[in-house]
């Protein structure tokens, strides 16, 4: 007791329920919630929404351009050939949004909040991969439904038999593989070049140039052309060595991109 003052009482500090808070903080976010967050990022800005809304129009326009003017559709290979070009060029806008999603997060460090809430980079990648799988499925079905209709119109106009209707499973397989390979290329580029402008430059310039080079010298450039397995499945490939070389190369690049993802500085 201090002279002249009443006795002082010591008030104990409030008890904070650290256990409950720590338990909540330690829980991992459900995987479906991570997928929902990545899906919202895909359409996170007005420009993303406009690009995705315009993508079907662009794809249909490319399909019309590469199907209806065809005059030599006497074989199944001639009829499915334009599909491989349409998949690579017609889906550029969709894959540009994918590149912006993956590469832009590292460029602008917007990946930090995601990794703070959920530190596992593989779960983060799997969540993005699930969203991209949904994009792949939508693009595949849209192309598979519309392309045969247009190529049938072109074949009828040239008095050729429509041959793709006899092998719908084959057409679907080529469509699925070609779309997956283009999407995989966009993903690899965006992971290896974590800069939106740089990744878009590589994807929009280098990859189409590689496609043109492959048409000129398939035996040489087929070795590194990312869509070579799809061309092989369509019966238009340069050969089995080119198909194997392309698959090994791009799977190796995917492994390298995942390795770099695990060690990339997010700060």
UniProtKB/TrEMBL annotation:
Membrane-spanning ranges: 50-68, 80-103, 124-150, 170-193, 200-224, 244-261
Keywords: Membrane, Transmembrane, Transmembrane helix
Official protein name in the record: ABC-2 type transport system permease protein
Organism for this UniProt entry: Lentzea flava
